[in-house]
Give the backbone structure.
Amino acid sequence: MLKELLYPFDPNYILENKRKIKKTLLGQSDAFIEKKIAILGGYTTAAVKQIMELFLLNNGIKPSFYESEYNKFYEDALFDNPQLEGFGPDIIYVCTSNRNITRYPSLNDDAQALLKNEIEKYQRIWDSLKSRYHCPIIQNNFELPYYRLMGNKEASDVHGKVNFITRLNLLMDEYAQENENFYICDINYLSADYGLKNWSDPFYFHMYKYALNVNAIPYLSFNVANIIKSLFGKNKKGFVLDLDNTLWGGVIGDDGVEGIKVGPEESEGQVYSEFQRYLKEHKQLGIILNIDSKNDYENAIAGLKHPDSELSEDDFVEIKANWEPKDRNFADIANELTLLPESLVFVDDNPAERHIVSEQLKGVAAPELGSAEHYIEVLDRNGFFEVTTLSKDDLKRNEMYKQNIERAKAESSFSNYKDYLLSLDMKGIIKPFEPMYIERISQLSNKSNQFNLTTHRYTVSDIEKIATDENYITLYGKLIDRFGDNGLVSVVIGHIVEGVCDMDLWIMSCRVLKRDLEFAMMDELVKRCKEKGIRKIVGHYYPTAKNNMVKEFYALQGFTKIAEDEKGNTDWEFVISDDYKLKNEVITIQE
Amino acid sequence: MTREEVMKKLNEIFCNVFDDETIVLTDSTNANDIEDWDSLEQINLIVNIENEFGMMFDMAEVSDLANVGEMADLIMRKQAE
């Protein structure tokens, strides 16, 4: 799906580039379903239509449109209309606003009678459309009025416009409850969400006969498109969720189960609890929850067993917690659920992971989440699961999928991970320790638990000493990619004994796992050794409860195992040859 | 922004809105010169120009613009305010 058309989108960009976007969408696929959509408008609807087309194309629906003449929605609905009959709509959208309200009550009027008049006018429209065209109808409800003559009394007095519109909306809802194939487009909510004052800016009506701010049209069109794609079976079916800094704050592999942030004790934990509750609410709609996390499986489960976790292991259908690329796990999840990848939404705080998943698996939505307190806003407003009808099957869907997993365990292949890495446009800075980074280096040595070969901890003064000692080789690594600066994320320390570089420390932040930075660090280490006439490097791996992921790290770097004791401590050796071949092929190292 | 720069930016906006890189605006360019420039695109243009230049026009200001040159003059005036 085009990122530009996922919430939070830039409405100005969409308005200005709609032709270009349309071309892109049409060029991306030829597997559209074609649908005919009639827009019966109470105001100018040209831009509503044009922008709606983009959102529908993004959902695999190629629309053709019928558009009523300006403000002819009533006539088009009630009277014979050969043109509309010839068109044969699959959906009719009645796009009206409070500017179409025939008459508001004045203080002397019988407000109830006027209310009845107004709702009956719309019921005539809907009944007529239903009997003539036999297709789903989408109807705007009403936004609140632009001004309040009586101030707050407008809400409580039956003669107030606020009161009138509120009751009118409730009557529309009743009709929707009693009639199938009739759906409300809730512009009352949309306009509040956008800001009523801006939504209803009169400039756009008097100038162009748009009953809403032109800049708000993308939000309206998006909302209608969501109802339409839901009706045509294009809703998403589930979430694929990351864990660290997505379901809880912190990194469980490093911070431990007691260190992650979730629960009522402090504000950050509260944010994640609220988000977990939001996700859990989806289960009642039959939306399935899955996990795709770079973690040891035991750690993932431990996090879900946190006493304050709202979600538990049982709430998930698939749990993939391992060190495979995320897109591969994602594809496996979809495969085992026998769903198309594009029917699952990827939720991950890490932009690089979102990038690989949405690049590798076309059609997968991976919205930009923003900060944790906005996760709900972003997911919710995307309308991935827009409910038009609810079936009994929906409610049982979680169970169904759980059984399905047992069947298909086929593994999907992934062949161009390197292309992905190259597409990240990574730049590395790898240098001996410098004073300005001493504090960060010490901090990283104390925080890193997973990608940490020896788990030696260093204070600031330790690092200061080592940095100026001729008998040490030190390197820090910074990694920058197209999404931004990851900062200082790797540290290597070796001390020189009799012409051999003995590795005291090799750590890397998990946020840059599988980016080949470790190979770039190795290349640089080898270069520094050569400069000092060192021909051999010795490495050590000391197992802890958390660093299992680097057990074979030195083997990957081409070292040979020379010793292993009963505790699993291993020693490794690497002889530097003259024709040492650079291992890093994807990161450009800056001098 | 100089008037020349304003014209250049207007040209970019027109190219985006009409998805046509070949458009070259002059002061006298008007709706008759660009095929897709109808009343609807007029609205779209005004809204995009407002967004790109970070200014809002009054109804009176945009009601009777005759050509691109007058639009550029209006932007220059608003900019100086």
